[in-house]
Amino acid sequence: xxxxGALAVFVKTPGLSPVKTRLASAIGVRLAEEFYELSIxxxxxxxxxxxxxxxxxxxxxxxxxxxxxxxxxxxxxxxxWQGTGDLGERLHSVYSQILSRHHFVCFIGxxxxxxxxxxxxxxxxxxxxxxxxxxxxxxxxxxGFYFFGGSANLPKETWCQVxxxxxxxxxxxxxxxxxxxxxxxxxxxxDVDTAEDLxxxxxxxxxxxxxxxxQKTLLTWxxxxxxxxxxxxxxxxx
Length: 238
Fold this sequence. Notes:
By secondary structure, the chain is of the alpha/beta class. It has a single domain (3-225), classed as Alpha-Beta Complex (Spore Coat Polysaccharide Biosynthesis Protein SpsA, Chain A), CATH 3.90.550.10. Helix content is 40%, strand content 18%. The protein is built from 8 helices and 7 strands, in the order βααββαβαββααβαα. It is globular.
């Protein structure tokens, strides 16, 4: 029998897979991995707050590597393996696995560590409110999406007929979803893929109130890299 709703956080295991490769090309592998680990902790802190707002919410780490399922990084929540194939196939795998157990499923990644509890909470609330009638998308500034929520079964082709990592990704997914229900959007945000995105992240965190402790730790790390001196400077100049 299905139980309430679920939130899946898509992650890669540091040390087993390359992480933030575009960022690493600008700041180096070691610093990119440092950022990603801090981002994981910040995302986890947001998720923990969400479980207080939604007591029946089941949280899953959606782990990229099969041999990463037992990693100490992922001990806080349940785990599900993303499976094999390209991103569309893996999104389908996670969505269908979790939806077989729960009334609705929401997705986020671990590379938008500035996202507020209120923003994700809104997405979860709307997903739960419109069971079987609407999907919820949180569009990203680069054309992708940072949040997805749904409760209707979707064929594999829905996910696989989308070009990921392009400026058309969210729009293509939205077009695919219209055949299966309505669509509602929450506010646009960004995820961190490049050095320029780290500049945006610093500005966002530095101007935000009520940061969680793990988000403050990330802000301190960004300051240690020189952003407090000049948020507009490129990382290569820091």
